[in-house]
Amino acid sequence: MESNRLKIRTSIFEDCKLFAQWEALPSVRASFTMNDDWDYNSIAPQFVLHNQDKTRLQMTILLKETGEPIGRIQISRIDPDYDSLDITRIYIAEDRHRRRGLGEEAMRLILEYCFIQLHMERVTLDFVEGNYPAEALYLKLGFKREGVARHGGKKNGMYVNLHMMSILRNEYYSLFKSEEL
């Protein structure tokens, strides 16, 4: 997948080293239910397991111009019977690449992939309570609030609320059918 500034490719095992570096960053870790002890020894085995699971996809976001990896996407719960999936994790890792619209560009690319290539009817996601930049982006992209999963996640032994959102195929097409990335 490619857009003006980004390329998204299937993640490879060697990316686990980058994921470990990125997911140790406080700015990344704060946005997810990763425990403080989350590291390469947790990421690598999980990567292998998820790679064998047909209901999951793991992708790496790169700058198109340089090929530099800058972020990660995980999709789960791919359900061909219900034509639905969940964007489980998406981030632009380092602060130097943030606040430049790259996260929005990556989300637009992945939504195009989900609705056009995979023919999904429904795409869901959630975010940790208090992640206002993520919420603003998802609303801008047409996601609708579905509610709060109270104590729906756990981080460092503490329960956290997860805000649930979704976008349907017809909503996606009505917003983006005439746009090009």
Largest sheet strand order: 1-2-3-4-5-7-6
**What is the CA–CA distance across the termini?**
11 Å
Mean pLDDT, to the nearest integer, reads: 94
Helix-strand category: alpha+beta
Largest sheet: 7 strands, mixed
The number of helical segments is 6
Can you name the CATH architecture? Answer: 3-Layer(aba) Sandwich
Number of strands: 7
CATH topology: Aminopeptidase
Helix percent reads 25-40%
Radius of gyration based on Cα positions: 16 Å
Percent of sequence in beta strands: 25-35%
- Going by CATH, the homologous superfamily would be Gcn5-related N-acetyltransferase (GNAT)
Tell me, what's the shape? globular
What ranges have pLDDT less than 50 throughout 5 or more consecutive residues?
none
Q: What is the string of helix and strand elements? A: EHHHEEEHEHEEH
Plain-language structure description:
With 181 residues, the chain is α+β, with helices and mostly antiparallel strands. The chain has one domain: Gcn5-related N-acetyltransferase (GNAT) (Aminopeptidase, 3-Layer(aba) Sandwich). Helices cover 32% and strands 34% of the residues. It has six helices and seven strands; from the N terminus they run E-H-H-H-E-E-E-H-E-H-E-E-H. It has helices spanning 15-23, 26-29, 40-51, 102-117, 132-140, 169-176; strands spanning 6-10, 57-63, 69-79, 84-92, 122-128, 144-155, 158-168. The chain has a seven-stranded mixed sheet with strand order 1-2-3-4-5-7-6, sandwiched between helices. A hairpin with a 4-residue loop joins strand 3 (69-79) and strand 4. The longest helix has 16 residues, at 102-117. The chain is globular and about 40 Å long. The termini are close together. The mean pLDDT is 94.
